Batch of 2 targets.
Target 1
Amino acid sequence: MKKYEKILIAVFGSCTILSLAFLLISFFMLGKGIGYLDYLEEVLPYYLMFGGVFGVIGVLVPWRLRKRREAGKAPISKLYKVSFWLSFLPLAVLLIVGIAGAVGGGFDWSVLWGTVVLYGILLGCILIPIFPFMLFWQVLYGIMAGKYKKATDTQRS
């Protein structure tokens, strides 16, 4: 691992740990829940935590691919490709649920509350926190795949 990568991991990791510590202190000691996100100082730790996690992933993935290439293996493995295709799964689930709700028709109170509960659990607890990570993974995969495909094309020429 190069020196600048170690420094970036230290910066992004400390950013993540400090923001997570601040969130835990505000949740347990100050009694503020997730619903109290009115001011910048309350929202900033969330942004810093996501930025730190994305930064660490953004440094570790190219390092891992470079390490595989230096070992003589293909930089993008089959498992990496499978993880790319699986990253579309939350979007597919959301699309299927939306289409099923549209085809189902009828919209009385029981369907309304069932839909509110279903979407509340599905979107609020499962999909929304995953969407940024999946989108980041897809973009990172596209960049890295293009970079290594271009590098192998220039080596063949």
Target 2
Amino acid sequence: MDAKLVCYCILILSGAFALLSLGLLLIRMSGAVKEATVLMTILETTLAKVNHILDDVNNKMDMLNAPVELVSGFFSRGGLKASMLSLLGFLTSMFRRKK
């Protein structure tokens, strides 16, 4: 065997090893992509649930904010006059509606 034939054998063996390694890498990558797809579907459903919960929390915070603003209006400057006038207007509108 001459040196040229030995070099060809080494080159062929290294090419076969590279192709084998590349095949194993692609097989493992396809498994990782499948797992990532499953995780993404689970993540999408979780995010939808979280968005729904956050919307509920925001609505409840808005509902809690209205009484706080009403009470804080009594203590603001000139708020007592305005609240008395609005209460008086509400009462007169109630009496007008009943008639």
